[in-house]
Structure formats: structure tokens, C-alpha cells
Amino acid sequence: MNLQVDHIRVDFIIGSRRISNFCWAFILLFGALGFFFVGFSSYLQKDLIPFLSAEQILFIPQGIVMCFYGIAGLFISFYLWCTICWNVGSGYNKFDKQKGIFSIFRWGFPGKNRRIFIQFLIKDIQSIRMEVQEGFLSRRVLYIKIKGQPDIPLSRIEEYFTLREMEDKAAELARFLKVSIEGI
Prior knowledge:
The protein is built from three helices and nine strands; from the N terminus they run E-E-H-H-E-E-E-E-E-E-H-E. With 184 residues, the chain is an alpha+beta fold. The mean pLDDT is 89.
């Protein structure tokens, strides 16, 4: 989602609260619980979950391994749920031509650096760079080139579904900032 007035443009960045993250967190949680309960059922020699039979599983070594996988999956699921709750990675890119400032704000993990806020001068922006790698793990990222700084990514890798969307976004931003586009 973008918000643009005459001299201010704000691009909102979606963080961890995406449907795919919710799906993976649920799948991981239920899968890990299934593994753990089957492993624990093999220890008790009693089915804790009616549709998951543990009669054929010996506690040593299969039951222990399943409990271990279940606990590991629960930790990973907990991590995913925490990133979703904290909305890590969300924020905005703000371009204020009146003040001449480009600001990046992102939410991070809790702690001293929870809020990430960086500012640059708009006059130092050289261009908008597009990086496109097609293939099995395609990658489409917009970068902003600033004098004396490494390229700064403006978008997530999976944000753009088509090359056309990415080109349109880059063209809008380049037009607003009156800079050139590099890449492709």
C-alpha cells in the first residue's frame, strides 16, 4: 500500500503478518504436536490421540526421536508465532521532498534495537536499482542507490509476483524522486 501527496510518499512494508506465515506456523505447530504425542504415547504404551496409533513404535529409538522432533518443531513454531506477534520486518519507506529526507522505519525483535529508523538525504539518492533472478528460486528486489552507501533494499524478495508490478513500482518511485532506474 502506498500513500502519496504532492511532496511526500510513504510505502508501507508488510512484515511477518502474512497469510503464508500463519499457515506455516499452524502446520508446524500441529505437526510438532503430533510427533511429540506419538513419541510420548510410545513411552506410555497408550494412544493419547485416538487417530494416531503408537502401538508399532518402540520408545527406544523411534519414540525418543519423535519426541525430539516434536520438541524441535514446537520451538520453531514458537519462534514463528513470536515473529508474527511482534510483526518483525514491518514498517515504511518515507520520501519527503519538502524536507529533503528519505526515512526507513522497520520493527525488529524486542530489545534495544526494536525500532530501526534510518534517514538519508534525498539529494544523495543516485538511482533505483532492480535485481531480477529468474528460475526455481526467483528473486525480485528493488534497491535504492545512495552516494557512499551500500545499496539499500526497499522491498522483500517475494513482494512482487510479476516483473510488470516491479517495473511499475520502480517507475513510480523514480518519477517521484526524479532519478534513473538501473537493472534488467
